[in-house]
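Could you please consider the sequence and fold following this short note?
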Amino acid sequence: MTANYSEKIVFIYQSDLPLHCPLPSQEKWNLHPRVYLPLDEDGNAKCPYCGAEYQVKK
């Protein structure tokens, strides 16, 4: 998985759960404290610190 904050939506896989931001693969992995993100019913989440949007790829 490749992700960075310049992407509109960061696609993740079931194997990446539980979801936390920032992800280890992100360039600025230490930008803010690690926060675990709950997914909504559609498999989406948004980080309250940096605004990164995540979506589980189906």
In short: The chain has one domain: 10-56. Residues 1-5 have pLDDT under 50 and may be disordered. Residues 12 and 56 are 5 Å apart (CA to CA). The beta strands are 10-12, 20-21, 35-36, 44-46, 53-56.
